[in-house]
Amino acid sequence: MAVAQGSVAGTPAARDVFSEGLLELLRPAVQQLDLHVHAVRESQVDLREHIDNLAAELCRINEDQKVTMDLDPYVKKLLNARRRVVLVNNILQNAQERLRRLNHSVAKETARRKALLESTAGSSPST
Fold it and tell me: Are 41 and 89 within 8 A, CB to CB?
């Protein structure tokens, strides 16, 4: 029984059907993940801009005040947070690009296999 299953599962057509089914199963999750990554990247750009504005405002307040208040440590913390946001954004951007390339490769391979299957089915004589 295992031999019969192995021979059917080992055929190229069965593998292609399995690959296509797996791709269709994963496609919505990959697309949703891509949308979420894009939204996070946009929000991180906004956060980075807000951090820059806040740091500039703190520097301006520090310069304008007659009473000396040391805001430099807070500005440094903000700039450190900004650096981390930029780092995470770069990591997300790289991951999103890899995901896009992987999705493109899978779609290309699926199209190639589908065309191969159709050409094989079209050229084989019917019984």
Answer: yes
3-state secondary structure of 126: coil
Angle at the Cα of 45 from the Cα atoms of 39 and 46, rounded to 5 degrees: 90
List b or e across 24-34, with b for residues whose CB sees 16 or more CB atoms inside 10 angstroms.
eeeeeeeeeee
Q: Report the SS3 class of residue 66.
A: coil
Q: Which two tokens stand for residue 80?
A: 């450190």
Over the stretch 93-108, which tens digit does the pLDDT of each residue have?
Answer: 898 899 888 888 888 8
d(CA 40, CA 33): 10
Tens digits of per-residue pLDDT, 27-67?
888 888 888 988 988 998 899 899 889 888 888 887 887 76
Q: What per-residue string of b and e applies to 79-96 under the rule 16 or more CB within 10 Å gives b? A: eeebeebeeebeebeeeb
